[in-house]
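Bench log. Compound arrived from synthesis this morning; before running ITC I wanted a structural hypothesis for how zinc ion sits in the protein. Inputs:
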Amino acid sequence: MTRGGLLRVATAFVAATSLPAIARAERYAVTMSAGAWLRRLGPARYAILREGGTEAPYSSPLDKTFAAGTYRCAGCDQPAFSSATKYHAGEGWPSFWDALPRAVGYQKDYQLIGEVRTEVHCSRCGGHLGHRFHDSPQPTGLRYCIDGLALRFIPTPAHDRGRSSERE
Ligand SMILES: [Zn+2]
């Protein structure tokens, strides 16, 4: 199929499903109907992950969580971020300076008029996680500004932490 053909199909798909402003032309390993996602996630997580919403700033307890562990996609449970790259950005959302390898994908997001942002979503289920900015003082210069409702934090058990420090 030509590039133009693909674009027309993608446009028709978005129009037909009245999905959010964020176009979803990729295929994902985990797919579900809107109703099934809503039952699985509940309305608050659904609004973020499946409709591209943004939670209120400073509303997520994960904003202030800095324990060792893994942040998984709340949609499909894929590990998305590590506590090793989490930092306090002071913007009101959990922030990271890197994502786990191959855990996320990106799309241009035109939801804000006059500003093109980089949307970040789960590579496994396509769930919207947040946005990525280039204004971080951290090693990568990146700031992944992620909705806490899109994540589940799994703390690293104490005995695993001991083992991993022995390996290093
Ligand atoms: Zn996911």
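What the model suggests: The domain at 3-156 is CATH 2.170.150.20 (Metal Binding Protein, Guanine Nucleotide Exchange Factor; Chain A). Strands lie at 69-73, 79-82, 86-87, 95-96, 104-109, 117-122, 128-133, 143-146, 151-155.
ITC booked for Thursday regardless.
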